[in-house]
Amino acid sequence: MSLKSCLTDHFHQENPQKTLQNLLLNNFWKVQDVLFVIGRNIYQAACGFSGGAIDFISDFFQRTAFVEKEKRGALLDGMLFEIFFQPNGKIRNRFKTLMFNEVFNLQRYVELSYCFDFISEQLAPYSDRFYVIPGKKNKPVHIDIISSVNEKCENVIEQICFEGANIFKIDSLFPGSISYSYISQDELEKRISDEMFIPKRLLSLSTNFKIINEELKILYPNSFTLKKEKFF
Hints:
Blueprint (H helix, E strand, L loop, with lengths): L2 H4 L9 H10 L6 H16 L3 H8 L1 H4 L5 H16 L15 H5 L8 H11 L17 E9 L5 E8 L2 E2 L2 E2 L9 E3 L2 H12 L6 E5 L10 E4 L2 E2 L7
Parallel strand pairs: 1-6, 2-7
Antiparallel strand pairs: 1-2, 2-3, 4-8, 5-7
Helix pairs in contact: 2-4, 3-4, 3-6, 6-8
């Protein structure tokens, strides 16, 4: 397998699972710089809905258990870097969040903690883009959700607060009247995670939602966001 073939969109071929297995066994596995690029390529392929790449990321800890620390780390470093940085090394305007939670779930493993130290160091100069720098802390982040109940017994989200301040703002890209959509509690947690760039497993949510007639109905204002304003 040539270096060129490793760096193309091979994960979108008919048998991506076999391709991933070959990557683990070919001679380039000894080259950390190439593994870093392959890690980026795997995450990029997963964002393109390659089943093999998605499965590989989801089962990364087990599938790379036989790989020595430095090589395993280079692969994960590449995936982490791809989330936040462009190919030229500049930080992205819009981060790739499709597999954000799956990758950051790996922070649970002490054996991989050094990779999250790496990405938090890379993101430190851009701390104004985040509420909490990804990878820097591995402990719960407390979020308060304040809602009111309308005449239809629906919980309408009005504020989402972090460290005592309401960070729920109208998105400048969507001016005009406010419309609402129903959202489940799981979907709400996922949205907060994606917009604040905090792993879902670290979110500690406090709500005043009312369950009426054994049913929880949540309304989310479509034109609101948690993203930092100058980076919409």
